[in-house]
Amino acid sequence: MEQIVQQIEAYKQEIAAFKAKTAEELEQFRIKFLGTKGIVKGIFGEMKNVANDKKKEFGQVLNAFKQLAEAKYEEFQQLKEAGNGAAGNLDLTLPGEPHRLGTRHPISLVRNKAIRIFERLGFTIAEGPEIEDDWHNFTALNLAENHPARDMQDTFYVQNNPDWLLRTHTSSAQVRTMELGKLPIRIICPGRVYRNETISARAHCFFHQIEGLYIAENVSFADLKQTLYYFVQEMFGENFKVRFRPSYFPFTEPSAEMDISCLICGGEGCNVCKHTGWVEILGCGMVHPQVLENCGIDSTKYTGFAFGMGIERLTMLKYQIKDLRLFSENDLRFLKQFQGVL
User: Fold this and answer.
1) Do residues 183 and 301 lie in contact, with contact meaning Cβ atoms separated by under 8 Å?
2) Model confidence pTM above 0.90
């Protein structure tokens, strides 16, 4: 230990006499004394060879030595900040580096446009939690616990509470709005939803929806059809065909699915439209009386319609994208294609 203390005293004298004139000399000092293989770290490694009754005394000597070296380095820190003379050679006449502006994701572009269209029709936005309970996601919507239609919306459950799940549709936000009892209701519910799906070009385990709900007195299916006709014309233009097909949803009666002619293949058939020439863009129908009653609304006085659509499907049609997986892969080669659209 005595020999090491003598070495430390010699190094202290060297440090005290050190004067740095350039950033290079200061860096050499740092490497020699404070670097990962420097003198300070090497001497600290000798602690294991010191007797236990001497460790405290030796540790104080080491700490004082380290602090001396660090203080000397900080004393000449202004040389390092001078940046090896770079500041003095800065050409202020050079143009600055441009700031690259980001762009909105295509999903966000279509979502925002759909919201603006429905806002012109008097719809307001209602939102709800992504982690829902069974009542708001299923039971209140006429999907009892053992209802077979639940198989179409298999989802992910929270392990520590089986009643909690990742919502399968934004209809749960509609239920929460109806439970407030403030009529009439005219809302759209955009948001992310989850389902236990096999990931493919047309499906994913999470996606985005916009659902709409209108409840008032004397609401008819004709009101629903004209609302949706207006929406698709504003979203896609008028160069396509539209058809309604009878369908089944537990929360609406009667129910329908709305198709438009495929904008990607022009109706000739492709993997997006399953080679039929038609693409389903939404499901809709008149709100089931039982759903109204479940939410405390008098079904003998009020009627309403509801609809729901996947934003990914709308985006694929609008921008002629053939693989839904591109939206979540964060591939800049894909995303940069939308840089002209802010």
Assistant:
1) no
2) no
